[in-house]
Amino acid sequence: MQLERELDHSLNEALDRLLAMDATYEGGLSNHGPMAAEALAHLGVPASISPYVDHVLLKLEPARSDPAAAPDEWRHWLRARLGALVGAAASQAGHGLLRVAHAVRGLERAEADDADLTTFLRELGAAVAYWEGGATALPAPSALVGSLGVGEWLDSLERLDPGRRSDGMLTLTLTDAARLPGFVDRVAALAPSSDPTATLDALGAAAAECFRRNIGSSAFATLHGTTVSAMATVLLDHLDDAGKQRLVAAVAGFVAAAVVGFDDALDIVAQDPTPAPPRLAELAAASLEDHTIKFTDACISIAARSGDQRPLDAAFRQISRPYGEA
Questions:
Q1: Across all residues in the chain, what is the average pLDDT?
Q2: Shortest CA distance to 11 belongs to which of 128, 140, 108, 148?
Q3: φ/ψ of residue 74, rounded to 5
Q4: Is residue 237 one of the residues assigned to a domain?
Q5: How many beta carbons lie within 10 A of that of residue 270, not counting itself?
Q6: Is position 110 within any domain?
Q7: Which residues contact 43 (CB under 8 A, 6 or more apart)?
Q8: d(C-alpha 83, C-alpha 45), whole Å
Q9: Dihedral of CA 100/102/107/112: which sign?
Q10: Domain extent for 100
Q11: End-to-end alpha-carbon separation of the chain, Å?
Q12: Has residue 82 been placed in a domain?
């Protein structure tokens, strides 16, 4: 219980500092601060939260607006908004979904620990406003209706010519990938599990394996397929059955676009034995790097739920060789 109180207090202070900053910086890059701070709390390393915030604040910009906080009865409020958002899982390269999911998970933990929810409700309000302001959703089916397992499904996806990749924002190449003929039908060909969490974890694990065989911007893009898949599971309890199907299908569309657009299918590089999750959490926290922290948290979560240890190997690769570079 002492650790839970420490986590809640540390995250509360972090979010209070980060809410003074804008949702984007440098012309549109996503502010990962609230997401990574919550991931550090979920990883159980409260002493790392304040140093991370000190570090990330150096690059962020002051807030241009102050979104309204979510109400005390936040579950009904959130459910009323998610139905219109889940089809846009890829909006802002997945960061709208990610910020909302991290906000929800932090709020749920604070609520269970009977902590003061004021700052957590402010963060949820800001996160939902950010997602609602997105404009880069990808086409996706309303549900998965196929018979292909994840591996066969990924193999069936036509890859985008690397020469067509944009030198700019990640979202531009994702959009081009999703414009390939038959993209939506190919996404729908994935066989869904009866448990939406299992489908999302399978997608996240597959994206993690794809990350391990790529470098540079290609690794960066496929990393997001893992984090979006893992954090989408947080939102399932706040959706009806149709909403869950739309969310899973939209996440599949995001993973598919990342693979189609960026998978160069290089050989997986051998590495030292992967440490246990607690040590991975410590190493990720020490990196002070947004994506490394969030990716490690996602990989540990997927491995814990599914029993698939390959995401842990992917997390260690990112920690030891960020984005596959020597």
A1: 95
A2: 108
A3: -75, -25
A4: no
A5: 5
A6: yes
A7: 281, 284, 285, 293, 296, 297, 300
A8: 33
A9: positive
A10: 2-132
A11: 41
A12: yes
Question: For residue 5, is pLDDT > 90?
Answer: no
Q: How far apart are CA 160 and CA 263, in angstroms?
A: 9
Q: How far apart are CA 210 and CA 223, in angstroms?
A: 8
Among 321, 24, 326, residue whose Cα is nearest residue 171: 24
pTM of the model: 0.97
Whether residue 189 lies inside any domain: the answer is no
What's the maximum distance between 2 C-alpha atoms anywhere in the chain? 55
* Each residue's pLDDT tens digit, 223-251: 999 999 999 999 999 999 999 999 999 99
Please state the rounded mean pLDDT for residues 52-75: 96
- Matching residue, tokens 């924002």: 169
Count structural domains, the chain.
1
Q: Which two tokens stand for residue 324?
A: 């596959």
